[in-house]
Specification:
Elements: H1 20-37, E1 42-46, H2 52-59, E2 63-68, H3 71-84, E3 88-92, H4 98-101, E4 106-111, H5 121-135, E5 136-144, H6 149-155, E6 162-166, E7 172-181, E8 184-187, E9 190-193
Amino acid sequence: MPNEHGFAEFAGLYDQMVDWDRRLARELPFYRTLFDRRHVTRLLEVSCGTGRHAAAFAKWGLKVTAADPDEGMLSLARKHADLEGVSVEFVQADFLGLADKVGGTFDAVVCVGNSLPALQGSAERLPVLQTFARLLNTNGMLVLHVLNFDRVLTAVDAGTSRQVRMSPDRRVRFVMPFHPVCSLLDFCIESKPAARPVGRLVPSFLP
């Protein structure tokens, strides 16, 4: 899997890999119910990418801080927040630098996508979880989004399973081959000019 900075080179194409309208329509009701139930007013999103979730949370009137290690991602996130007419505090910081870059504590810390699973083992993940704990209020809530890689592994056939996505303008093709490595799953994302349309996604486990 890519490391924490593994998507930096895809900053300009990242949004085209995800059907954001469909994804947010599926996920936002869950977050809204959760935040309302826990009376969340101040939120930190970690590894925010292009800021789609952060902007959606800010639209609900939450005070949102969003952090990402890649300036390219943050630049797109700022543009998206401006287009949505919302205010989000964006901070350039990796996992371990969060405590030094953001101020105060939060009602909720949210980490969406592949960022945390990309870290290698408990030796790297435990300090990050400890950082999250320091950034939470006494009754604060941590929301982690971890893909079901065990489910993906069951569908991987000798390294031949892959996912193909087309950009909305159908000019770029994204190919994500999955490779089992012992009990782990490794994959990389390749972007190529699309000479011709490709078929439907096979299989589709990633958001």
